[in-house]
Design brief:
77% of the residues lie in helices and 0% in strands. It has helices at 23-54, 56-67, 69-96, 103-131. Keywords: Heme, Iron, Membrane, Metal-binding, Transmembrane, Transmembrane helix.
Length: 132
């Protein structure tokens, strides 16, 4: 007689709905999101550079678009994404040396990365508005 293969019930992989959201988990997800956002922001930088070498009219149009409140919001968001992604990378760099894995240290590094990116964003844009 042929042997009937029965399906072996294996446990399912853990899913986000099973875990309690932790700051390190949310920061890891945000690190991926900011990495993707940097691609979009870099395209905006390329548009600005291409407009600068194309013609004064094209540069004026792009400068006008970046000068609107929506353009300024996008640029501030790009700046924050850049600093947040950098802070996440620095956090991982610290972890590469085997440091900061304790429960308190992990949370401090995560909150520190948010404070670092926020402070640098405010400093850069504050300096830009003061100089202009």
């Amino acid at each position: 007689m042929a042997k009937v293969q029965t399906r072996v019930e294996r446990p399912l992989s853990p899913h986000l709905m099973i875990y309690r959201p932790m700051m390190t988990m949310m920061s890891s997800i945000l690190h991926r999101i900011t990495g993707a956002a940097l691609y979009f922001g870099t395209l905006l930088l390329v548009v600005w550079l291409v407009a600068a070498i194309t013609s004064p009219e094209a540069f004026d149009l792009v400068s006008w678009a970046f000068g609107t409140w929506i353009g300024q919001l996008v640029l501030v968001g790009y700046t924050w994404a850049l600093f947040q992604h950098m802070a996440g990378g620095l956090r991982h760099f610290i972890w590469d040396f085997g440091r900061g894995f304790g429960p308190v240290e992990r949370e401090l590094l995560t909150y520190g990365s948010f404070a670092f990116s926020g402070a640098l964003t405010v400093a850069v844009w504050g300096a830009a508005y003061l100089l202009l």
